[in-house]
Amino acid sequence: MQVVGKIFLSNRLVERLGINVQPLIKVRAGCLVVTTEMVVTPDNRTTYMLSPALAQALYIHRQKRLLIRYDYENAMLHVGPTIGIFATGLPRRGYYEPTSIGAELIFLSNISNTMPGQIYIFTPTSINWDNLTVRGYSYRHSNSGKGTWISSLYPLPDVVYDRVSTRTGEAREQIRNTKIKLMQQPYLKYFNPSFLNKWKVHEMLLTNPWLHKHLPETRPLTTENLEAMLKKHKTLYVKPSNGSLGLGIIRVTQDQKGTLHYLVHRTKRFRSSAESAADFMTKTRKIRADKPYIVQEGIDIATYHGSPFDIRIIFQKNRYGQWQIGKKFARVAARGSSVSNLSSGGKALPTKIIMRAMFRKADLIEEKNKQIKEVCCQVAKTIEKVSQMTYGELGLDLGFDKNGHIWLIEVNSKPRKTTQTELSKIIMRNAFKRPLEFSTYLAGF
């Protein structure tokens, strides 16, 4: 057994953590475990210090403020947290659109400087599996106004926050293999592991009877399912199972003669018609490109000044591991559009403006807000229970029908968060910070 360096613990800290005093003790940082000498010092403060040799062996950087805990189960000290933000690549340009993943990673890196622990961004090529270290990156602002990414070696982390930002990136073999290997590490926790598939999500949510009244009827898209749904609903939405940003959605209505009229939402919208469900499937084959689609009941959605709207909620776990609403705003569709996504021309408004216009009475608004939170809780807990995966944040789109009933429109496991907002900057900042606080909780601190 190799013994490296020393850890100095005040007797007050030893007492507080309930550590058995012994000559040698294991110390862990992230996935690295080192055996070291234990030295107890007389001090009324709850302090500890690592010798330079121990800090070097654990790849701990002197300027970082680390917390300490005693892991009773494994009889070792644990310093950290060490948090890795997993991305497909690092942004290299000087300026980024506030909605881009580049701006998000820079913002996360900046926030991490205000928190205890070692927090870094890493990519699949960053990891040295032989010695369980990672070349991690943090963003540093320079006097010229242009920042730069600084790299250092760190231990493989306690917790991975998955910010792989595209389905294409997630499908890459290198990323898939890296993810599997990370999840196999004995001390490592991993959350928000993948994008969600709309049909699989619907199947998961159907296991919770409480949610049934909030779920629009949904089926996999086939000619038979489309025909059956057209007999029951005036409006249908045909959506890519693995799509996002409102792209590829097709709104379908049927007139009295049985003709189908459909509107396709892509980079440009276009209208067309089909004689039957089979004709629709033929005419939209190129648009769908053999990708899996669902067909969903169209809700008679409530409007604000004549435009449909939905409520976008960033639902997050906090520093205590409990779900809460991190951010909530209304998305009002552009004039003439039925899709409220901001990327498709929708406009963000504070929910209180919309709620006041729709429900008027304060007690009714309060009741609706409680219902919104309960729907979010039931959705999040059901997805975690059925998938047996850990999630720290979800994007939920909820809609009201004309009667004020709440419907779940969509769930997204990789909600994009803009670094620029006309709403509250504090809420925006906290929405970025909360997953890092949840990571600290997951690490055991």
Describe this structure in words.
The strands form 5 sheets. A 6-stranded mixed β-sheet has the order 4-1-3-2-6-5. It has 12 helices and 25 strands. Helix content is 28%, strand content 33%. It is α+β, with helices and mostly antiparallel strands and 445 residues long. Helix 3 crosses helix 12 (425-442). The protein has 4 domains: 3-78, Barwin-like endoglucanases, CATH 2.40.40; 83-191, Rossmann fold (3-Layer(aba) Sandwich), CATH 3.40.50; 198-214 and 300-413, 2-Layer Sandwich (D-amino Acid Aminotransferase, Chain A, domain 1), CATH 3.30.470.20; 218-297.
Q: Outline of this structure?
A:
By secondary structure, this protein is α+β, with helices and mostly antiparallel strands. The protein has four domains: 3-78, Barwin-like endoglucanases, CATH 2.40.40; 83-191, Rossmann fold (3-Layer(aba) Sandwich), CATH 3.40.50; 198-214 and 300-413, D-amino Acid Aminotransferase, Chain A, domain 1 (2-Layer Sandwich); 218-297. Helices cover 28% and strands 33% of the residues.
